[in-house]
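Posting this for the archive.
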Amino acid sequence: MKYAVIAPTAAGTTADPDWISAYAQHVEACGFESLVLVEHAVVMSRYSSVYPYDASGKMELADDLDIPDPLDLLAFLAGRTSTLGLATGVLVLPNHHPVVLAKRLATIDVLSGGRLRVCVGMGWMKEEIEACGAPFEARGRRADEQLQVLRKLWDDNAPNGADHHGEFFDFDGAMSYPKPAQPGGVPLHIGGHSRAAARRAGRYGNGLQPLGVMGEELADLAKLMRSEAESAGRDPDALELSLGHLVAKINEERAEKLAGQGADRIVLAASPLASLDEACAELSACAERLGL
């Protein structure tokens, strides 16, 4: 089992270079697989969109909270760590142009020695996505095309470059270098709780990270991902399933239950502790419980 840790964004400390550097180094020293960062390019002080993972319909993060760009922060942390995996969870894909994103992700992967994993989502805050210039209602179709563009630009397409003619993006002879260090490109996981997310993971992704899903619904999504992969001529056994839990509550028994549901990775949400000592102590206790 692989164990990832989501940095405690709600603590308001992830933009502090000393704090987040020490935290990432402790995640690495404890034996966790990777550190995961969230994204919001902007948070609107007023929004009518419904946050789907809380009964209130509002997300728990404050409007004026420091939420550093996850890719810039991962590049920074790549230089402060040596073996730690660097991940997003989730990168709001509609906020990004895939041609520019392909270069940014490949650069981080090369400079980190192939340590990047990207989990993307479609986003729920309409106001944020539209502020970034993307049509909210078309974000699913656009995302499918974005994932195709990323793959094309990462493929070895010399000497003529990559061509793409789609609904949202169009280019001929595009040469994007450097290529990612990892064979096949940066792993792209799909985050979400919908059947569309599972289909997208099977067709274009390296795995699925269902959010707020369990039981039969989870089993159905995993089955759908695998069937879509087979239909697309891809190996379903090569796809990963990442499930969530809490750093403070996970133990070997609970990890075994998640493994029984098909989990290859458990993504652990850390408590929003502003004290570095307390945050690191929570990680150490978790690592000890899991035998890392």
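The chain has one domain: 2-290. Residues 25 and 81 are 6 Å apart (CA to CA).
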